[in-house]
Design goal:
The structure holds two protein chains of two kinds.
Chain A (H helix, E strand, L loop, with lengths): L1 H32 L5 H13 L2 H12 L6 H8 L7 H25 L3 H9 L4 H30 L2 H7 L9 H10 L3 H28 L1
Helix pairs in contact in A: 1-5, 1-7, 1-9, 2-5, 3-8, 5-7, 5-8, 6-7, 7-10, 9-10
Chain B lengths: L3 E7 L12 E7 L2 E6 L6 H9 L6 E6 L2 E5 L4 E2 L2 H4 L1 E4 L11 H8 L5 H11 L15 H14 L4 E5 L7 H18 L2 E6 L2 H7 L2 E6 L2 E6 L1 H5 L12 E12 L2 E5 L4 E4 L9 E7 L4 E3 L10 E12 L4 E6 L3 E6 L1 H6 L7 E6 L5 E2 L2
Parallel strand pairs in B: 3-9, 3-10, 7-8, 8-9
Antiparallel strand pairs in B: 1-2, 1-4, 4-5, 5-6, 10-11, 12-13, 12-15, 13-14, 15-21, 16-20, 17-18, 17-20, 18-19
Helix pairs in contact in B: 3-4, 3-5, 4-5, 5-6
The chains are: A mainly alpha, B alpha+beta.
């Protein structure tokens, strides 16, 4: 059970982090810089997975993406694919739980940029996209990197929402965190210890890698 | 030839002070350097942001040459990036992650960004700094690069928001000369915000005085800042004098203040150059007879043009014919029977004139 769980955890947390990095950067930038009706409400909704118990988030995801859910039902009717109890459900649960980390970090990073940099870029003829890519993103880099790190850590350790949306099927949806739970319940303390150490090593390795990447660029 | 003409009514959206500040000003600037003069809170920065397009006026109209940038009645509001209005901020504010050359190339519109950037860096005397990041530049160097960056985009109007206020006097003087040179080459209006009278006199061909969001005076800096000028009452008791160097040597300099030639300390300026001198109003001595045997190098014959009494002192404005403000006590006025039209002499030490620009 150790090998598949490790492989699944690495895949799930990497995919979830990639999705969250894009979505969180977009939502953070939007809330930091755009003035629109309901901005505060949107920001609060983005924080919801952080304040709710993971089980509630998992149940909510089941309602929306379940076999007969609002989106899940349509998806099943159109493609025949059902999300719950698949590795996609693991990614979805991890991504939703990790999203607030990235959103918060991105929002703070963009709010920390002196607006006059954007004014200067625009006065020099730069389009919004060019200003975003060549001025804002590099200036927000530190904060965004921190957000990615936190999001990855959160995705790797996700348990509650994953359990509800993806179940705990060894070889299919059982991530390291779920495997630890199962071994403890089954009294297999040696396995639990190995898995825990493994999870710790992966986490530390990921943190070191991110730290190195952010120094190098 | 692009001429700036703007009528602006701007109420900044969030006003934490709650002072109800608003800007209602008509600004005009021809090619050349126009000084926007005023103390902090007068609305200078608000005016610049409105011209730049970063703050939307409630009503008004902005035109630059034959282009209309903003017109509230016709719902015209050209985006910042299409206005061709450049800006240099007080703290330079270069892109910190780009080196000097990349900063300048950012604004160069043609694809030959780097060669154009190098040409601009050379014009501002910063070619040797091309590969340095902003954090590795001095304040003066940053402003040079910021000027190059703004001008490389070929703006039709350049806004300068107190660009020299954070610099030491030597860097200020160098950048002042550079700005005059660059303006001569660019032939577009430069709107230069400052509250430094010396800077205004040295750089400005025209000046607008802004106070509490309103333009309260316009004219040349020399006329507005001269003793008795519209802006002078708002300054401390210093004579800000713009003159032309007549001679300079080990024995001191001679400066023509416009009909009045005064002896000064060493100027370190070539004859024919412009110089700005500061003379504290407390320094000159008024004499009713030409004095002899005094160390004062200047004995200027003049006539009292006005006497302005304030709570603590009396300011005597003397036409020599260049106007000088002399601050004396009430007792001095009554003892000497000073009155408008009286012919007097002013004793001024050569070293009382301070070179400030």
């Amino acid at each position: 059970m150790i090998g598949p769980a490790l492989a699944l955890s690495l895949l799930v947390s990497a995919l979830a982090t990639a999705v969250v990095a894009l979505a969180g950067t977009a939502s953070g930038r939007l809330v930091a810089r755009s003035r629109f009706r309901g901005r505060e409400i949107a920001d609060a909704l983005c924080h919801l997975p952080l304040v709710l118990p993971p089980t509630v988030v998992g149940y909510g995801l089941l309602l929306v993406f379940g076999r007969n859910g609002w989106i899940g039902g349509t998806l099943r009717a159109v493609t025949g694919f059902s999300i719950p109890f698949t590795w996609v459900a693991c990614v979805l649960a991890a991504a939703v739980m990790a999203f607030p980390m990235m959103h918060r970090a991105a929002r703070a990073a963009f709010e920390g940029i002196d607006r006059r940099h954007e004014m200067a870029a625009a006065s020099l003829g730069a389009s919004r996209l060019r200003s975003f890519l060549t001025v804002e993103l590099p200036l927000a880099r530190r904060g965004l990197t921190a957000g990615v790190t936190l999001a990855y850590a959160r995705a790797l350790g996700e348990f509650g929402a994953t359990l509800i949306l993806a179940g705990n099927i060894p070889g299919r949806t059982q991530t390291l965190a779920l495997a630890v739970y199962e071994s403890v319940i089954a009294g297999e303390h040696n396995t639990a210890l190995v898995l825990s150490v493994m999870l710790s090593l992966v986490s530390v390795a990921a943190l070191l890698l991110v730290a190195r990447l952010s120094r190098a660029s | 030839m692009s001429r700036l003409a703007a009528d602006l009514v701007v109420t900044p959206p969030a006003n934490p002070a709650g002072s109800g500040f608003s800007l209602e000003a008509s600004l005009a600037a021809d090619p050349g350097i126009t000084i926007l003069f005023g103390h902090s809170g007068a609305g200078k920065t608000t005016a610049l942001l409105a011209l730049l397009g970063a703050m939307r006026p409630q009503t008004g109209r902005i035109s630059l040459g034959d282009r209309v940038l903003f017109d509230s009645s016709k719902k015209i509001d050209v985006a910042v990036r299409e206005r061709r209005v450049g800006i240099v901020f007080q703290d330079a504010l270069l892109f910190p992650h780009l080196d000097a050359r990349a900063n300048v190339a950012f604004g160069a519109r043609d694809r030959a960004g780097n060669s154009a950037a190098d040409a601009w860096l050379e014009r501002v005397g910063a070619l040797g700094l091309a590969h340095r990041k902003p954090a590795e530049l001095s304040g003066g160097e940053r402003q040079r690069v910021a000027l190059a960056r703004a001008l490389a985009a070929a703006p039709d109007l350049l806004l300068l928001d107190e660009p020299f206020s954070a610099l030491d006097p030597a860097a200020r003087e160098h950048l002042g000369s550079l700005l005059l040179e660059l303006q001569a080459g660019a032939r577009v209006p430069f709107l230069h915000v400052t509250h430094d009278p010396a800077e205004a006199l040295r750089l400005g061909g025209a000046m607008l005085v802004l106070e509490a969001g309103r333009v309260v005076a316009k004219g040349t800096p020399t006329a507005l800042l001269a003793p008795g000028g519209l802006a002078s009452d708002r300054l401390d008791a210093t004579n800000w004098l713009r003159g032309t160097v007549v001679a300079d040597g080990d024995d001191g300099g001679r400066v023509d203040l416009g009909g009045t030639v005064v002896l000064t300390g060493r100027l370190h300026r070539a004859p024919g150059k412009t110089v700005v001198l500061a003379l504290p109003a407390e320094e000159p001595i008024i004499a009713t007879d030409p004095a002899r045997g005094t160390s004062a190098r200047n004995i200027l014959a003049g006539e009292i043009a006005a006497i302005v009494a304030s709570a603590d002192a009396v300011d005597v404005i003397v036409a020599t014919p260049a106007l000088l403000r002399v601050r004396v006590t009430r007792a001095a006025v009554s003892d000497l029977h000073l009155a408008k039209g009286l012919k007097i002499f002013l004793l001024v030490k050569a070293t009382s004139f301070r070179v400030v620009g």
